[in-house]
Design a protein that fits this description.
This protein has nine helices and four strands. By secondary structure, the protein is an alpha+beta fold. Strands 2-1-3-4 form a four-stranded mixed sheet, with helices on one face. A hairpin with a 2-residue loop joins strand 3 (about 55-60) and strand 4 (about 60-65). Helix 1 runs antiparallel to helix 7 (about 165-180). The longest helix has 25 residues, at about 125-150. It is globular and about 45 Å long. It binds glutathione (GSH).
């Protein structure tokens, strides 16, 4: 398998965690999101992913995009350990936790969105950071409540094994810190993060551990 990735990309980080949890060896193809105006925007990379976003996963001659689709593909092809619970309602809960991050928070504080807000609407770095903080805070405060309220409260977002929800949460916390969010408001999230980072699969997927890290 070949993963098109950038060390600081949280969507790529999600896929790296999933591959590590499954014990799957893979090759990394670094796509630098800033160098030369962004390698994701080149014609060569657009041929891999027409959305000009990382990650993309190449497997058996097929290229897959969108981290959640990639992770579910990996999970279906390599079912152990499972990344989703089997009970339909539990599965929906874990997916909804993942989507709080992947659908509601991450897309509106992504590089291209923040660049657009700066360039087209004349916002300063400080204003753009406050925009990112606002949406991250909104999502994390909802997720904090979801973690505390669920019936299978354990070491992770859901129960005692890492799931898709943890895979989305941990990389988002890196972004949150980068934008100066106060995470002390989210004790259940911080406890979950600690439990995740104690696992090699999460620790080895961290941005600073990647071959393209700066
Ligand atoms: N929904 C997509 C999001 C992918 C995405 O936004 N990737 C970011 C890095 S985390 C990216 O490539 N950004 C490049 C840009 O904004 O130009 C996924 O889950 O794969």
């Amino acid at each position: 398998m070949k993963l098109y990735t950038f060390f600081r990309s949280s969507a790529s980080y999600r896929v790296r965690i999933a591959l590590n949890l499954k014990g799957i060896a893979y090759e990394q193809v670094p796509i630098h999101l800033r160098r030369g105006g962004g390698e994701q925007l080149t014609a060569a990379y657009r041929a891999v992913n027409p959305q000009a976003l990382v990650p993309a996963l190449e497997d058996n001659g097929r290229i897959l995009t969108q981290s959640l689709a990639i992770i579910e593909y990996i999970d279906e092809k390599h079912p152990h350990p499972p990344l989703l619970p089997t009970d339909p309602a539990d599965k929906a809960l874990v997916r909804s936790m993942a989507m709080v991050i992947a659908c509601e928070v991450h897309p509106i504080q992504n590089l291209r969105v923040l660049n657009h807000v700066k360039k087209e609407y004349g916002q300063t770095d400080d204003q753009v950071n406050r925009w990112a903080q606002h949406w991250i805070d909104l999502g994390l405060s909802a997720l904090e409540q979801m973690i505390v309220a669920q019936t299978r409260r354990g070491k992770f977002c859901f129960g005692d094994a890492p799931t898709l929800a943890d895979i989305c949460l941990v990389p988002q916390l890196g972004n949150a810190r980068r934008y100066g969010c106060d995470l002390s408001k989210y004790p259940a999230i911080l406890e979950t993060e600690n439990n995740c980072m104690a696992l090699t699969a999460f620790a080895e997927a961290a941005p600073e551990k990647q071959p393209d890290a700066e």
